[in-house]
Amino acid sequence: MTQPDARLVLAADLDPRASYRLMTTLVVPRPIGWLSSRGADGRPNLAPYSFFNAVSAHPPMVMASIGRRPDGPKDALVTIRETRAFCVNIVTERHLEAMVQTSGDYPRGVDEFAMAGLPMAEAETVDAPYVADAPAVLECRLVREVDLGDAPNTLVIGEVVAVRLGPGLEYDPDRLAVLPESLRPVGRLGEDAYTLLGEVRHLSRPRVER
User: Fold this and answer.
1) What pLDDT shows up at residue 72?
2) Sign of CA dihedral 33, 51, 185, 102
3) pLDDT tens string 8-23
4) Residue 66 to residue 16: CA distance in whole angstroms
């Protein structure tokens, strides 16, 4: 599997699948945005996206890059556009298998909550459902879409209107710092590989006087 000599891979020489495999096995681990939303017809949608991250702290904002199907946008993008709202359910170890179940390329209109046996609840600040027993949920409103040019993806940026912290989650109530050992997040690696929390090392940033 390994190559003895260094190799320069030119992006222009790669087909889409090879480019995807290379990028998703190198840019790791990636946080998973488990997005839940509801269409104008009232049907819920739940799907994970690992091209996901936080992009701003104040106001808090997150982004997710949503790909396309051969016949058009994925359900997540359609429903988010219709209601301009979504929730991000933080994926932890206890929900790993259920999250993977919701990642299938199912026909339009499939209720992934019911299919994966997940309890559903309603967000308080936006028109979107969420995974009721998720330890933390970000309730978001759509603020912008970004066209990525030739890429078959749409970048969705949402402002976090409220954060729901579950009763079993440990955090500093004054600083609002969640303990990673309590959260037990899951990260996405390449292909069908995921990483669990493992060892946590705490290292302080250097203090630089100006």
Assistant:
1) 86
2) positive
3) 999 999 999 999 999 9
4) 16
Secondary structure of 156-197 in HEC code, one letter for each residue = EEEEEEEEEECCCCCEECCCCEECHHHHCECEECCCCCEECC
**Residues with Cβ < 8 Å from 87, sequence gap 6 or more?**
35, 36, 37, 123, 126, 128, 129, 130, 137, 138, 139, 140
Retrieve residue 141's tokens. 């409103």
Name residue, tokens 């994966």.
116
Coil/strand/helix, residue 152:
coil
DSSP state of 27: S
Q: Which residues pair with 119 in a beta bridge?
A: none
Contact between 132 and 166 (Cβ < 8 Å): no
* Per-residue tokens: 192: 């069908």
Q: Terminal CA-to-CA distance of the chain, rounded, Å?
A: 49
Pairing between β-strand 187-188 and β-strand 194-195 as defined by DSSP bridges:
antiparallel
* Tokens (6 digits) for 199: 């060892």
- Give yes or no for a cis peptide into 48 (omega within 30° of 0): no
How far is residue 63 from each of residues 19, 73, 97, 100, 204, measured CA to CA in Å?
21, 17, 24, 20, 27
Q: Does domain 30-195 have CATH number 3.40.50.720?
A: no
Q: Residue 188 forms beta bridges with which residues? A: 30, 194
pLDDT in tens, 170-199: 999 999 999 999 999 999 999 999 999 999
* pTM for the predicted model, two decimal places: 0.94
